[in-house]
Amino acid sequence: MSLIHSFFSAFLMYTRIPMPQVEWREENRRYSLCFFPLCGAVIGGLLLLWRWLCTRLGAGELLFASVGVALPVLVTGGIHLDGFCDVCDAKASCGDRASMLRIMSDPHIGSFAVIRVALYLLLQLGVLSEIDSMKKALSCALCFVASRALSALAAVTFRSARQEGTLMQFVTPAHRRITVAVGILYATAVAAGLLLTDWLTGVAALVGMAASFVYYRIESYRRFGGITGDLAGYFLQLCELAGMGGVVAAGFVKGAFV
């Protein structure tokens, strides 16, 4: 039952998909991070279905991209995008570590967050408008799984900036060795899937996501003293954009030399 309850807890927390309610106890969240990448698999699956429908119906790339931008927000309720906004506000303050952590705890949104999330969504729209085939869509779909696998790995291996908060409610009860092993398994499977789908596209996507992971580690430790739930959301958004950006960049490279 622990595994089933952990599965439900993961989807109840990180998606808006209806699930049976489970009691908010630590033992019910012991393996939740192991199921976190499956939330990304749902988003990726919906993106693939939407790409297929657009192709069959002859829908334009702007319509595909617009719905593609909305899908992750609709599935997750915007929980990760909320973290992205909080971190943007904190970093824009140019304050010390304590003040930035305090800003991230503030439920209000600042003007810098609005500006940067608008730019982020605009970039995501542009990237998705270049996803004109099922093969590219599959590569992008895998990025949603990879970002969450890397996020789960970071959650149990990176230092935490504070000992309370939503992230710690999942990290504290987590079985760390199993979470790391499962996270590595997910990451390996995604890497294999990307490379088998198209090796150049796969390499570009993996490089982009790996770079965002390294940036996450360096920036979180340097400016915040560790990671938080908001920083985890910030990373997840950057990782997805970097991975999908790699897919598009690889397409441009192949087009230029074919």
Number of helices: 11
H/E series, N to C? HHHHHHHHHHH
Number of strands: 0
Radius of gyration: 18 Å
**End-to-end C-alpha gap:** 54 Å
Give the class from helix and strand content and strand pairing.
Answer: mainly alpha
What are the segments in which pLDDT stays under 50 over at least 5 consecutive residues? none
The best one-word shape is globular
Note the main sheet.
none
Strand content: under 5%
Averaged pLDDT: 93
- Specify the helix fraction band: over 70%
Q: How does this model look, in words?
A:
The protein has 258 residues and is an all-alpha fold. It is built from eleven helices and no strands. It has helices at residues 2-14, 32-57, 61-76, 79-93, 97-105, 111-128, 134-157, 166-171, 176-197, 199-224, 229-257. α1 (2-14) crosses α2 (32-57), α4 packs across α6 and α7 packs antiparallel against α11.
Question: What keywords describe this structure?
Answer:
79% helix, 0% strand, 11 helices, globular, mainly alpha
What can be said about this structure in brief?
With about 260 residues, this protein is mostly helical. It has helices at about 1-15, 30-55, 60-75, 80-95, 95-105, 110-130, 135-155, 165-170, 175-195, 200-225, 230-255.
